[in-house]
């Protein structure tokens, strides 16, 4: 798509999810991670002047890490 993804900080995570085969899949993102999420497929909410995106863990495109240089 032509929509540019959003960059944001993870402020909360859920417990994970159950796979279609019945096994438990833990959440990979952690509170404090800086992530890239798609605009399409994410729920955008404005609350008290802040913009939040709610997205499934599996929809996160990338985790941005600081360089160790």
Q: What descriptors fit this protein?
A:
globular, 69 residues, 3-stranded antiparallel sheet, mainly beta, two-stranded antiparallel ribbon
Give your account of this protein's structure.
The mean pLDDT is 89. The strands form three sheets. Strands 1-4-7 form a three-stranded antiparallel β-sheet, with no helix packed on it. A two-stranded antiparallel sheet has the order 2-3. The protein is mainly beta and 69 residues long. The chain has no helices and seven strands. It has strands spanning 6-9, 17-18, 24-25, 34-37, 43-47, 50-54, 62-64. It is 0% helix and 36% strand.
Mean pLDDT: 89
The computed structural class is: mainly beta
Strand content: 35-45%
Radius of gyration: 14 Å
Q: Helical residue percent?
A: under 10%
Distance between the termini: 33 Å
Low-confidence stretches: none
Report the major sheet: 3 strands, antiparallel
> Going across the major beta sheet, what is the strand order?
1-4-7
- The number of distinct helices, counting runs of at least 4 residues, comes to 0
Q: What are the secondary-structure elements, in order, as H or E?
A: EEEEEEE
Shape: globular
Number of strands: 7
Summarize the structure.
The protein is mostly beta strands.
Topology:
Blueprint lengths: L5 E4 L7 E2 L5 E2 L8 E4 L5 E5 L2 E5 L7 E3 L5
Antiparallel strand pairs: 1-4, 2-3, 4-7, 5-6
